[in-house]
């Protein structure tokens, strides 16, 4: 992980966790109590979705600060996602790839193949760390 | 999974916006794939994989032309891609997991070059399109 190379430490707050719910609608299964998710515009404007997106991004910010110990950083969240939230780890991969795509959209040409490769390793590491405590 | 009328409109509009850049985008998607998913290079041991390689450019154009053909036949992609499906099944035999890697890198390429058009709805339609193409190309594997 220490060899990941170039990293953009910009504010990620504009990234959209919401996109996951639009592009892969079956991921909505975990958010029954979020209210109106009936259309793309409903999802993009839903305040609970936005709030949850911020939570997720804050965690990812922690990941970037602790790239050498992702498993330790995410140990508690991993237990939570397994024991309380019952989220299939496949969803972490979907969200990770979604993040990469949104980064490409916002950074355009700066998001070179090399930068993408570094981020792919990062999101893969986060997915593995989040799944690590599953049993 | 079925492409709705809205999906088909989104796909056609996106392909129009891409226009003559399709070949370049195909090459860029391949280069991204080789960087992010190095296991995919095992299928191209006979290629020069350096940046700007003529072989990658040529192969990118091939991929883009095939996708363009599929865009022109959204109502019957299996027939339009039948020969390519045979090729992948009997000669190339690329493991199915790799189609997802290339599809992902195509989406990344399109998002980076056409951010304005790449709304969540268009993104979803393109994801479905690439997924459909991938299924067709692996449909005769066994």
TrEMBL record, chain A:
Gene3D superfamilies: Globins. The keyword Coiled coil does not apply. GO terms for molecular function: haptoglobin binding; heme binding; metal ion binding; organic acid binding; oxygen binding; oxygen carrier activity; peroxidase activity. Keywords: Heme, Iron, Metal-binding, Oxygen transport, Transport. The keyword Transmembrane helix does not apply. InterPro entries: Globin, Globin-like_sf, Globin/Proto, Hemoglobin_b, Hemoglobin_oxygen_transport. Residues 1-135 form the Globin domain. One of its GO terms (biological process) is hydrogen peroxide catabolic process. CDD domains: Hb-beta-like (cd08925). It comes from the Eukaryota. GO terms for cellular component: blood microparticle; haptoglobin-hemoglobin complex; hemoglobin complex. PROSITE patterns: GLOBIN. Belongs to the globin family. This is Globin domain-containing protein. The lineage of its organism: Eukaryota, Metazoa, Chordata, Craniata, Vertebrata.
UniProtKB/TrEMBL annotation, chain B:
Residues 2-142 form the Globin domain. Gene3D superfamilies: Globins (1.10.490.10). Keywords: Heme, Iron, Metal-binding, Oxygen transport, Transport. The keyword Transport applies. Pfam families: Globin (PF00042). GO terms for molecular function: haptoglobin binding; heme binding; iron ion binding; organic acid binding; oxygen binding; oxygen carrier activity; peroxidase activity. GO terms for biological process: hydrogen peroxide catabolic process. GO terms for cellular component: blood microparticle; haptoglobin-hemoglobin complex; hemoglobin complex. CDD domains: Hb-alpha-like. It comes from the Eukaryota. InterPro entries: Globin, Globin-like_sf, Globin/Proto, Hemoglobin_a-typ, Hemoglobin_oxygen_transport, Hemoglobin_pi. The keyword Metal-binding applies. Belongs to the globin family. Involved in oxygen transport from the lung to the various peripheral tissues. This is Globin domain-containing protein. It comes from Microcebus murinus (Gray mouse lemur). The gene is LOC105856255.
């Amino acid at each position: 992980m220490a060899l990941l190379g170039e990293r953009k430490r910009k504010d990620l707050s504009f990234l959209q966790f919401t996109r996951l719910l639009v592009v892969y609608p079956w991921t909505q299964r975990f958010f029954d109590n979020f209210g109106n998710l009936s259309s793309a515009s409903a999802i993009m404007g839903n305040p609970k979705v936005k709030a949850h997106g911020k939570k997720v991004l804050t965690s990812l910010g922690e990941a970037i600060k602790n790239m050498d110990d992702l498993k330790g950083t995410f140990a508690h969240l991993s237990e939570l996602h397994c024991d309380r939230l019952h989220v299939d780890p496949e969803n972490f991969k979907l969200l990770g790839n979604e993040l990469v795509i949104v980064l490409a959209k916002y950074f355009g040409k700066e998001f070179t193949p090399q930068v993408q490769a570094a981020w792919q390793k990062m999101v893969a590491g986060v997915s593995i760390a989040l799944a690590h405590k599953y049993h | 999974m079925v492409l709705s009328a809205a999906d088909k409109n989104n796909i056609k509009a996106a392909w129009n916006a891409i226009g003559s850049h399709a070949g370049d985008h195909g090459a860029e998607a391949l280069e991204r794939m080789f960087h992010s998913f190095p296991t995919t290079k095992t299928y191209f041991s006979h290629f020069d994989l350096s940046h700007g390689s003529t072989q990658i450019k040529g192969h990118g154009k091939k991929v883009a032309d095939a996708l363009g053909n599929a865009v022109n036949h959204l109502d019957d992609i299996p027939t339009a891609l039948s020969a390519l499906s045979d090729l992948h099944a009997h000669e190339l035999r690329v493991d199915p997991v790799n189609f997802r890697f290339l599809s992902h890198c195509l989406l990344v390429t399109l998002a980076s070059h056409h951010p304005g058009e790449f709304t969540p709805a268009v993104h979803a339609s393109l994801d479905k399109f690439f997924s459909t193409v991938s299924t067709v190309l692996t449909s005769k594997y066994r």
